[in-house]
Each structure stands twice: as C-alpha cells, then as structure tokens.
Amino acid sequence: MLEKEQAYFEAHKDELRQKYAGKRVVISGAEVKGVYNTDGDAFAAATKTMKPGDFMIKLVTHTEEESIRRYMNRVYV
Length: 77
Known about the structure:
The chain is built from two helices and three strands. It is of the alpha+beta class. It has one domain. The protein has a three-stranded antiparallel beta sheet with strand order 2-1-3, sandwiched between helices. β1 and β2 form a beta hairpin. The longest helix is centred in the N-terminal third of the chain and has 18 residues. It starts with a helix and ends in an 18-residue tail after the last strand.
C-alpha cells in the first residue's frame, strides 16, 4: 500500500526539498496533489477529492530526517 507514492517521493526528494522544505505534500500515484503547512490542512484538502489510503502525506525536510521514525506517547512522567 502506497508503494507508488513512496517510490515517487524517493525519486523526487531532492526536487521536493528545494521547492517545499518545511511543508507537507500530498502525493497520489506519481503526482503531487497539493502542498500545505500542516498535516490537518493536508488531510482536510486531500479527503475532499480522495479517500484515505489513496494518498500519502509527507513532511518534506531539509535532510534525511523523514527516514527516522518517531513514536510518541502522551503520557508525561
């Protein structure tokens, strides 16, 4: 699932970094469908024309930071 979108991002990440660093891109198939400031804005816009699972929202960073997976918990000790 979303292999085509991930492959597109990997193939074009240098170009996307130059244009959209710090933004969220919505990718569907092999095409950028939109560029947004927040995940919420990206999701709201994408779900107007596509159903979840048909697109990927990706944060475009200046470095390889997007390849690091972070897991967060709302518990504060």
